[in-house]
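Homework help board

Subject: predicted structure for assignment chain

Our instructor gave us this sequence and asked us to write out the predicted structure in token form, then describe one feature. I got the tokens but I'm not sure how to describe them. Can anyone check?
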Amino acid sequence: MRPAREQNLTEWALPVLKEKKKILNIVDPRLLGDYPVKGFMKAATLAYHCLNRNPKARPLMRDIVDSLEPLQVQDEHTGHKMAGTVISTDVLQAETVGKEDPQ
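My token output:
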């Protein structure tokens, strides 16, 4: 049994990741909006697919790496590590087409 203050990360994140309006609520407020929102949203979408209850419906690890690597590119506008302008959405779509919702 878990202590009352502990919470399962998947149980906490899944409802937030499911609703686009709530996704930005999980960003560390100390960043003060100083992060690439587009890159964060793409990483959050990938995380959502990784939380699928059916392990066979989750993206393959090599596809996750391929999707996250472009986010490390230096963003010329902000100087952040994690440019939000590129990620392979084709990989996500290919891995999730016809697969069930994570819940």
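Reply (TA_rk): Your tokens look well-formed. For the description, you could write something like this. Residues 82-100 have pLDDT under 50 and may be disordered. That's the kind of observation they're looking for.
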